[in-house]
Design a protein that fits this description.
four-stranded antiparallel sheet; six-stranded parallel sheet; Aldehyde Oxidoreductase, domain 3; alpha/beta; single chain; 11 helices; 2 domains; TIM Barrel
């Protein structure tokens, strides 16, 4: 969850990395009492995410810097739009500029990509699917990546390994070596965890579906299924579990998968292959 404490900690660490003993250039160039104003301007269309992080970068460097946001997280913007104005001591503005942009550009990139997937899936005939993220996030930046997905209209998967059970192929291989089949594995898991813990299982073929249902899975992930098998799998599940589709999901493929009737489509590319949105700070 992206709280103020999480933001402050990450921003401080980023500033410590970028200017551990100060900003040599700004301190040698700009008189301490000089003030100025810059605008955060979009250089391409996108969806905003991270305006609180952007603000925190400047305020952490110098509490005397004022940030006036012109848009809120989750709002679409067009190239040329002014998203925020920053006023205050010029030294502080220049010191915080790169850290503020690094966070915000990446977060806007994630939000924008997510919105494209959400729009594509929403337009598919018969679709009710949600777009979700995965754990394929930048280490240390998961709260920021996850927040950006929500800003783009997506939903968050389990936050980490501690939050829910997700049985994948390597788990199943280990259990098979212990003499347990899929259904037995899921029943064993259920006996070991709290009653509120969600259980999801990944399958790579319809031949495993019956055992997943017999074992009482709450969600069944169809990994790299064909469209034909996805449709058939949804019919066989018949509402007894949530159905998630995953595996190299693209903008071109997602609508057809959604039209098969799945409940969730998880997209690793939202966070592991994102392109930052081009934003700039222009002096007024």
């Amino acid at each position: 969850m992206l709280t103020h404490l999480v933001i402050e900690d990450a921003v401080r660490r980023a500033l410590l990395e970028d200017c551990p003993t100060g900003d040599v250039t700004s301190e040698a160039t700009i008189p301490a009492d000089i003030t100025g104003s810059v605008r955060l301007r979009a250089r391409e269309d996108g969806v905003l995410a991270g305006i609180d992080v952007f603000t925190a970068a400047f305020r952490t460097v110098d509490p005397g810097i004022r940030v006036d946001a012109h848009a809120r997280d989750g709002e679409r913007f067009a190239a040329g739009d002014v998203l925020a104005e920053v006023d205050g001591p010029v030294r502080g503005i220049l010191t915080a500029e790169r850290v503020a942009l690094n966070f915000t550009q990446r977060m806007c990139g994630i939000a924008t990509m997510t919105r494209r997937f959400v729009d594509a899936v929403d337009a598919a005939t018969g679709s009710h699917a949600r777009i979700t993220d995965t754990r394929k996030t930048v280490p240390g930046l998961r709260p920021f990546d996850r927040h950006a997905v929500v800003c783009g209209g997506g939903h968050n998967h389990r936050y980490g390994l501690s939050d829910a059970v997700l049985v994948k192929d390597n788990h199943l291989a280990a259990m098979r070596a212990a003499g347990l089949d899929l259904a037995a594995t899921l029943r064993h898991i259920r006996s070991q965890i709290g009653h509120t813990t969600h259980i999801e299982v990944e399958i790579d073929g319809l031949d495993q579906l019956g055992m997943a249902l017999d074992g009482g899975a709450d969600t069944i992930m169809f990994d790299n299924f064909t469209l034909q098998d996805t449709r058939r799998g949804v019919e066989l599940v018949d509402g007894r579990a949530l159905v998630e589709a995953s595996g190299t999901m693209t903008l071109d493929r997602a609508p057809a998968v959604a039209a098969c009737g799945v409940d969730l489509i998880s997209v690793g590319a939202l966070t592991h292959s994102v392109r930052a949105i081009d934003l700039g700070l222009d002096w007024r």
